[in-house]
Amino acid sequence: MQMKSNLGPMYYQLKNIIIDMIENEEINVDECIPSEPKLMQTYNLSRTTVRKAIDELVNEGYLYKRQGKGTFVKGRGFEQGLIKLSGCSEDIRRYGLEPKPYVLQEQIEKPSKRVAKMLDISPEEDTFYMERVIYGDDVPINKNKSHIPYALVPGIEDVDFNKESLYKVLEKDYGIVITRAIRTVEAILASEEVALQLKVKEGAPVMLFKGQVYGEYKGMEVTIEYFEAIYRSDQFQFYIEQHR
């Protein structure tokens, strides 16, 4: 396909050419698109024009980059329902990948007044605090922070959460049955720290979830966890199922 001056900017035309290749399955999911030099030569374009087209397709969810390997066609990505309550590890396994948690920090601490209020406990009571990045195979999916009333989970600091699922430990070791959650979501931009941890550009759009998880413990429903989780928007998609 030749570039034409009356069909819009050159980068825009190149974007549409690549999209057509993807839609017509000339390049399949996880296959590499032609290299920048190849695209420059084929369509007589500058490197700046080619990079602009590719960067926009990455931002729009058509492509993803691998350092030193090239640019590849992206699939639909991970999905998680906003109604169904499931953990990130469960969702990653549903897509045939192995969840790999990486603990950044964990400790027993006194909660802030805000966290204590969310957990419905006194600020004088201890909580178990944990901060992790969860990978799907080798791709970081989210960074999350968990606050749990320590009275419900004595000794939980001895669990190796680089290997274990938090919710499975709560159910298996502490007899806590997760029942429901209340959470909010907002779009934010990745800070320098988050960008490094999730391997995205600083200022990239990410999704911030905050909320409380409730569970049945000794016959009563109690607040099990207050959490904050930041998801890569280019790797995870959320959906809402509605009924009339």
Which key terms come to mind for this protein?
Arc Repressor Mutant, subunit A; 10 strands; 27% helix; 244 residues; two-stranded antiparallel ribbon; 6-stranded antiparallel β-sheet; alpha+beta; Chorismate lyase; 2 domains
Please characterize this protein's 3D structure.
With 244 residues, the chain is of the alpha+beta class. It folds into 2 domains: 5-73, Arc Repressor Mutant, subunit A (Orthogonal Bundle), CATH 1.10.10.10; 78-239, Chorismate lyase (3-Layer(aba) Sandwich), CATH 3.40.1410.10. It is built from 7 helices and 10 strands. Strand 1 (63-66) and strand 2 form a beta hairpin. Helix 1 crosses helix 3 (47-59). The longest helix is centred in the N-terminal third of the chain and has 14 residues, at 10-23. It is elongated, with a radius of gyration of 22 Å.
Overall helicity: 25-40%
Unreliable stretches (pLDDT < 50, length at least 5) are 78-84
Work out the count of structural domains: 2
Could you give the order of the helices and strands? HHHEEEHEHEEHEHEEE
Mean pLDDT: 84
Tally of contiguous helical segments: 7
In what order do the strands lie side by side in the largest sheet?
Answer: 4-5-6-9-8-7
Beta-strand share of residues: 35-45%
**Rg:** 22 Å
- What is the CATH C level class of the largest domain, in words? Alpha Beta
Main beta-sheet strand count, sense and barrel state: 6 strands, antiparallel
